[in-house]
Amino acid sequence: MNIGQEVLAALKNEITEVEYNRYIKQLSYDVKKSTSDLALFYAPNALIANWIKSKYTEKIAHLFEIKTGSKVSVTVSLKNEVTSVKTKQKTEQKVQHSLLNPSHTFDNFMVGGSNQFAYAAVKSVSENAGKVYNPLFIYGGVGLGKTHLMQAAGNVFQNQGKIVIYTTVEQFLNDFIRNVRNKTMERFQEKYRKCDVLLIDDIQFLSGKEGIQEEFFHTFEALKGAGKQIILTADKHPKKIGGLEKRLQSRFEWGLVADIQPPELETKIAIIEKKCEINKVKLSKDIVNYIATVIESNVREIEGILSKLHAYSQLMHVDIDLMFTKNVLKDQLQENRANLTLDTITQSVAKDLNVKPSEIRSKSRSQNLVYARRIAIYLCRELTQNTMPQLAQYFGMKDHTAISHTIKKINELIENDEDFKTKISELTNKITSS
Ligand code: ADP
Ligand code: MG
């Protein structure tokens, strides 16, 4: 038995047999790459890796410490993922980049109205390195797929045998500082200037850091001059990134600047279905729709949700149905929706149905207003913590029985009318992602 196996065997005594068999047993320990301060394990898929990371790494590290007397950091990776292993001896000569995630491919990227421009731009660059848009600058909010897209191009280039450097501004900066300190700047320059493709993620962090901006400028000029492809991402348009040298800012706009917007409902559904397929999780259409409306724009939440659902259902021996999903996601829901109020929901419904908020809250019995009012009441009940009497008061109704009657009506409609059900999902999506 190697030390990794010994530690896992010890862990067996601390957790339930089900947990051990389902998760821990699937880990394998990399004897070669592990060192005295790093323990590297492989998991068979991302769900198990995430789950183990969130639940067991501390325990595992503790057991290592007991057995070996020294502190290790525990890493759980995917088997096919080329890991950037940090060891004390090696960091001196070699700076590690986070390498490309092999599942960040174009095939795994779901395209919709919100991201098709960025997708088309990156795709085109991946087919014509250095020739079409150089640099290509992608910007958009958190978790919208910028890194995924950028790495998709990186994977294409890498498969063609090109030298691809993927790095964040932070790593680039650390690398720079280390080389300055060691007086090995020529090594730094050679490395970044001899690559074929340079991918730099989250470029907004250059803001206000003058020394590194200067160095980056020269790297940029050298690569661009040699026709090497550069792809950059940021959370905002180059013009909006403050604390950036003018010459850099203008160069960022030389090629093409493409934005990514928050995904529409259909795109979210497609993404969830794709993630289920990749991670071999089976969910019914209802649950997929539900998750798509619960998560707002940050697609990154999807993987977390899937792994949570998977893990709970395995540990508790229950199938993943809608009730179960709602329960598991309750916390997430409350957090995301904390800022939704009766006013904002009513305003959105009014806008969507072309009536006034005041009309929704009036006593008018005209058919379209009754319809709008019922939908508003239903959504307020679903999306906020207000009680039925509070809703009755807000919508000027007699008492809570009127509210519960309304909700019952809407639930019946949702059950019997596919179009109406879609309408409600779309509205929920609009409200929760605005
Ligand atoms: P960003 O860099 O914009 O913050 P990421 O590229 O890290 O976002 O994406 C977060 C997660 O969402 C990743 O797991 C990524 O694979 C996934 N993702 C985002 N957009 C899509 C999409 N259109 N299709 C498939 N997966 C997506
Ligand atoms: Mg990113």
Would you kindly provide a written description of the structure presented here, covering whatever features stand out?
It is a single chain. This protein has 434 residues and is α/β, with parallel strands linked by helices. It is built from 22 helices and eight strands. Strands 5-6-7-4-8 form a five-stranded parallel sheet, with helices on both faces. It has a three-stranded mixed sheet with strand order 1-2-3. Helix 10 (210-225) links the parallel strand 6 and strand 7 (229-234). Helix 1 (3-12) crosses helix 4 and helix 17 (342-353) runs antiparallel to helix 19. It starts with a helix and ends with a helix. 33% of the residues are buried. Residues 85-97 have low confidence and may be disordered. The structure holds adenosine-5'-diphosphate and magnesium ion. The site of adenosine-5'-diphosphate (ADP) has 16 residues, from helix 7, helix 12 and helix 14.
Detail the topology: elements first, then pairings.
Elements: H1 3-12, H2 17-22, E1 28-29, E2 38-43, H3 46-55, H4 57-68, E3 73-78, H5 88-91, H6 116-127, E4 136-140, H7 146-159, E5 164-168, H8 169-181, H9 185-194, E6 197-201, H10 210-225, E7 229-234, H11 246-252, E8 256-260, H12 265-279, H13 285-294, H14 300-316, H15 322-328, H16 330-336, H17 342-353, H18 357-360, H19 367-383, H20 388-394, H21 400-416, H22 418-433
Parallel strand pairs: 2-3, 4-7, 4-8, 5-6, 6-7
Antiparallel strand pairs: 1-2
The structure holds adenosine-5'-diphosphate and magnesium ion.
The site of adenosine-5'-diphosphate has 16 residues, from helix 7, helix 12 and helix 14.
